[in-house]
Amino acid sequence: MLESQAVLVASKRAVIKHSAVLHALVLLSLLSSTFSWQQHFSLLRCQVTANMKGRSAEEVAERILSQPSLSGLQGPTISPVFSKRDGKVIVDYYAIVICVPKKDLYTSVQQLRGIGGSGVLVSPLTYIFDAEPPRWADFLMRLGL
């Protein structure tokens, strides 16, 4: 197995003057983010979405956060699921979204079921953009952009 790297050489003027060059660099930034997260998270994360019955988003959050492995990257995303009963719009369920390591997927689904989760959907995560990559921010700073 060989290790390789690519080096981009461009003048500051060309990058600022030609938007196509900057767009290419944005694409490189996306790839950099992908490879960086793949290295740190080993491509082993899934997005898990489930419905949970509850009186409020806070109540549902309490149940999810009672299971430390279900906290996601920064915590669960919780959204109301609207339905109609007797001509009125109501909220009985909440959709929750978390990010879990693939190796813990089965355990996470079991934990979700144990606290009332149903209709569990799992999607692979291709990209995770947390903060702007430091190299990209440094590059833009050097260009004065």
How do you describe this structure in short?
With 145 residues, the protein is α+β, with helices and mostly antiparallel strands. Strand 2 and strand 3 form a beta hairpin.
What do these coordinates show?
This protein has 145 residues and is an alpha+beta fold. The protein is 40% helix and 28% strand. The chain has a 4-stranded antiparallel sheet with strand order 2-3-1-4, covered by helices on one side. A hairpin with a 2-residue loop joins β2 (77-85) and β3. The longest helix is centred in the first third of the chain and has 23 residues, at 19-41.
The number of domains is 2
Number of helices: 5
CATH architecture of the largest domain: 2-Layer Sandwich
| CATH top level label of the largest domain | Alpha Beta
